């Protein structure tokens, strides 16, 4: 389950934002010209449990015993937004996560960062959404597990409805006067180089009010074991992809894509999304309301089957 609090309208409207822009040279570039098919560092091209994948209802195993409880910070916090060559990201403990893995083991995690990809990296029944937010969590010290990362993905679709989160976490804040510039300091065999980044400080943002409150109390979600979607593609991730699709306006999305999908010099017309990877017979589990709805569907079908057979028997 996901524990969330519904916000009051005036709380959302009262968020204040102040920004300061600086430039650093600590980022790394990643080529998306081939959507990651040419990545050779780490296990990107040599392993079988890679991400992202297409999530299909028919291939998912329903499990009502699973737990997914993401607790966004309820207090306003200051956060730094950073535009690097391949995404816009922030490094901050914006949430705590308690979730069961596909084997039913419950673990606790703390968020360390989040980043965005457009179009979405994961697809659901072949549908690719306009934006994917990936919140990366690390295993809490009091837990012990082989897999030490959990990533919660939230998908966004273009709508006429403004997205309150992106009103404050405004991608346009990192639009500096200069474009990121790269140097010749190659770091690995995937054509990555050090690059400038642009940062902007958001003085006050409340993640629970602006983001957590939009999620269903018990949403449908998918979980599977996979990898990071950027080099070195380490296979050390429990993925949790929410099936509650949130709105974003075209203007808000354009503020992100001006650096990536809409930038002809970024990746030959591609966005910053890695191509779909093979599932390779991995287990995909479904939890939340989707699992409950599937149970109701099959139970109703079973009752109807008995009802029809009863009347056939009476007519004989």
Overall shape: it is globular
The total of helices stands at 6
Rg (C-alpha, Å): 21 Å
Number of E-type strands: 18
How many angstroms separate the termini? 49 Å
Estimated structural class: alpha+beta
Average pLDDT: 83
What does the model show?
This is Alpha-carbonic anhydrase domain-containing protein. Keywords: Membrane, Signal, Transmembrane, Transmembrane helix. There is one protein chain. The chain is of the alpha+beta class. It is globular. A hairpin with a 5-residue loop joins strand 7 and strand 8. The strands form two sheets. The chain has a 15-stranded mixed sheet that branches. It is built from six helices and 18 strands. It has helices at 9-13, 164-168, 207-210, 250-257, 264-267, 289-315, and strands spanning 21-28, 54-55, 60-62, 68-72, 77-83, 88-90, 95-100, 106-117, 123-124, 127-128, 131-139, 149-158, 182-188, 192-205, 221-226, 237-242, 246-248, 284-287.
Quickly describe the structure.
The radius of gyration is 21 Å and the shape is globular.
How are the SSEs ordered, and which strands pair?
Blueprint: H1 9-13, E1 21-28, E2 54-55, E3 60-62, E4 68-72, E5 77-83, E6 88-90, E7 95-100, E8 106-117, E9 123-124, E10 127-128, E11 131-139, E12 149-158, H2 164-168, E13 182-188, E14 192-205, H3 207-210, E15 221-226, E16 237-242, E17 246-248, H4 250-257, H5 264-267, E18 284-287, H6 289-315
Parallel strand pairs: 2-9, 3-18, 12-16, 12-17
Antiparallel strand pairs: 1-14, 4-7, 5-6, 5-14, 6-8, 7-8, 8-11, 9-10, 11-12, 13-14, 15-16, 15-18
Notable features of this structure?
316 residues; alpha+beta; Carbonic Anhydrase II; 6 helices; 34% strand
């Amino acid at each position: 389950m996901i524990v969330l609090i519904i916000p009051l309208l005036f709380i959302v409207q009262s968020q204040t934002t102040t920004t300061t822009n600086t430039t650093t040279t600590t980022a790394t570039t990643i080529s998306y010209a081939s959507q990651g098919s040419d990545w050779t560092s780490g296990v990107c091209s040599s392993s079988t449990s890679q991400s992202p994948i297409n999530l299909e209802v028919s291939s998912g195993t329903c499990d009502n015993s699973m737990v997914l409880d993401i607790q966004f910070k309820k207090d306003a916090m200051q956060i730094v937004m950073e535009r690097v060559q391949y995404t816009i990201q922030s490094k901050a403990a914006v949430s705590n996560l308690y979730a069961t893995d596909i084997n039913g083991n419950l673990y606790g995690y703390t968020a360390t960062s989040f980043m965005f990809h457009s179009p979405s990296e994961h697809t659901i029944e072949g549908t690719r959404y306009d934006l994917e937010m990936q919140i990366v969590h690390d295993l809490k010290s009091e837990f012990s597990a082989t897999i030490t990362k959990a990533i919660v993905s939230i998908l966004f679709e273009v709508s006429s409805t403004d997205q309150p989160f992106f009103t404050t976490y405004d991608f346009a804040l990192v639009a500096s006067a200069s474009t990121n510039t790269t140097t010749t300091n190659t770091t690995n065999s995937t054509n990555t180089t050090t690059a400038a980044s642009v940062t902007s400080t958001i003085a006050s943002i409340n993640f629970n009010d602006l983001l957590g409150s939009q999620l269903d109390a018990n949403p449908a979600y998918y979980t599977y074991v996979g990898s990071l979607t950027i080099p070195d593609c380490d296979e050390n991730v429990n993925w949790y992809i929410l099936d509650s699709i949130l709105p974003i306006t075209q203007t808000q999305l354009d503020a992100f894509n001006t650096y990536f999908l809409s930038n002809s010099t970024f990746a030959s017309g591609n966005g910053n999304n890695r191509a779909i990877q093979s599932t390779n017979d991995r287990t995909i589990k479904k939890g939340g309301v989707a699992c409950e709805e599937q149970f109701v569907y099959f139970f109703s079908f079973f009752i109807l089957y008995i009802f029809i057979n009863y009347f056939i028997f009476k007519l004989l």
